[in-house]
Amino acid sequence: QVQLVESGGGLVQPGGSLRLSCTTSKSIFNAMAWYRQAPGKERDLVARITSSSSTNYADSVKGRFTISRDNAKNTVYLQMNSLKLEDTAVYYCNIHPPFRDYWGQGTQVTVSS
User: Given this model, what pLDDT does residue 99 score?
Assistant: First the structure.
């Protein structure tokens, strides 16, 4: 059973930055992605990275967020800059398309002044 553990969330002011990490218990060669779920809303795709490191982003984060992966460390990152209030959510990583058994606890990102 593969486990994915997210970390790096926290409280940040608007305009600030955070870097999230997702470490997997085994090597994963699928496309990986970050998702987020705000209170009362559905879980949405934020960013995706293929095994060859091609990337895609939700329109709402383009130009502000960067996804990357280090296969040697079994880790996927999400660098988040110029954070906005609406980026507040629990952030999760998973393969893309997501596999239900891989959902972890997520990491809370709160953007507040």
Answer: 94
Query: Measured on CA atoms in the order 17, 58, 39, 78, is the torsion positive or negative?
Result: negative
User: With pLDDT > 90 as the criterion, what percentage of the chain qualifies?
Assistant: 94
The dihedrals phi and psi of 72, each to the nearest 5 degrees, come to -65, -30
Burial of residue 59 (number of CB atoms within 10 Å: 0-12, 13-18, 19+) = exposed
In one-letter notation, the amino acid at residue 26 is: K
Report residue 99 as tokens: 């596999």
Residues in the chain: 113
Q: Where does the pLDDT of residue 6 fall: very low under 50, low under 70, confident under 90, or very high at 90 and above?
A: very high
- Cβ contacts of residue 87 below 8 Å, gap of 6+? 36, 61, 80, 109, 111
Structure confidence at residue 67 as a pLDDT band (50, 70, 90): very high
